[in-house]
Request: fold
Amino acid sequence: MSLAVLIPVSIALGLVGLAAFFWALRGGQFDDPDGAAWRVITPQDPPKEEGNGHVRLASDTHHPDARSGL
Reply:
């Protein structure tokens, strides 16, 4: 009895998913997936660099105090 209900329900849900896919395909959802991703990542106005450009991010390992904290 339960398979008589579950099989048609699963087929109906599969058809609904397929219809949604074709609807999105006709609506242009998949036209340019890479272009939209790159437009999000690349800023239009790059941020201005602040501070000193010569400052090193890593600690100076040659300084005697740098190794004492390890």
Observations:
- Residues 2-26 form the longest helix (25 residues).
- The chain has a mean pLDDT of 76.
- The chain is about 55% helix and 0% strand.
